[in-house]
């Protein structure tokens, strides 16, 4: 049986992780999801496929007034996920540019330069998280 994560706990964990991404770096929905254990009651393979979407939902539900750098989370291709030319996409690109994150002609970042390597080991231990996969 497949059980999705508790949204309140999952979202709070996602937001804590995102707060660790330093200015000038980016993470992906999948990288963030890779740090969150599927737990005992979740099918790991299904979690692996659905968790990045749940991270996206958490990012859409980021509480206003919190200092959560939502703009530092992009998709696994290195692109902004909002529709090209939308106000949200332009705002995310502007905020990243202010931090020195550059996009190539195809609208992608170079993960080797700006990809986040994840939080420190103490943070991972404190929250019971897994080491993140590296961005490629």
Structural commentary:
- The chain is built from six helices and two strands, in the order H-E-H-H-E-H-H-H.
- It has one domain: Arc Repressor Mutant, subunit A.
- The protein has a two-stranded parallel sheet with strand order 1-2.
- It has helices at residues 7-18, 29-34, 44-60, 87-98, 111-114, 121-127, and strands spanning 27-28, 73-74.
- The termini are far apart.
- It is mainly α.
- The longest helix is centred in the middle third of the chain and has 17 residues, at 44-60.
Order of strands side by side in the largest beta sheet?
Answer: 1-2
Share in β-strands? under 5%
CATH fold description: Arc Repressor Mutant, subunit A
CATH superfamily heading: Winged helix-like DNA-binding domain superfamily/Winged helix DNA-binding domain
Terminal CA distance: 32 Å
Mean pLDDT reading: 90
At CATH's second level, what is the architecture?
Orthogonal Bundle
The number of distinct β-strands equals 2
Assembly classification = single chain
Radius of gyration: 15 Å
Task: Assign a percent range to the helix content.
Answer: 40-55%
Q: Estimate nothing, just give the exact number of structural domains.
A: 1
Please write the string of helix (H) and strand (E) elements. Answer: HEHHEHHH
Question: Structural class, please?
Answer: mainly alpha
Question: What is shown here, in short?
Answer:
43% of the residues lie in helices and 3% in strands. By secondary structure, it is an all-alpha fold.
């Amino acid at each position: 049986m497949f059980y999705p994560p508790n949204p309140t706990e999952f979202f709070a964990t996602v937001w804590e992780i995102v707060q660790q991404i330093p200015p000038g770096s980016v993470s992906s929905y999948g990288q963030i999801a890779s740090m969150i254990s599927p737990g005992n009651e979740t099918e790991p393979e299904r979690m692996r496929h659905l968790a990045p979407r749940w991270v996206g939902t958490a990012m859409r539900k980021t509480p206003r007034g919190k200092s959560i750098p939502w703009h530092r989370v992009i998709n696994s291709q290195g692109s902004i996920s909002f529709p090209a030319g939308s106000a949200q996409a332009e705002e995310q690109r502007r905020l990243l540019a202010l931090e020195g994150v550059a996009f190539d002609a195809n609208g992608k970042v170079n993960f080797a330069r700006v990809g986040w390597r994840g939080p420190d080991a103490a943070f991972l231990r404190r929250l019971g998280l897994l080491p993140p996969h590296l961005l490629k």
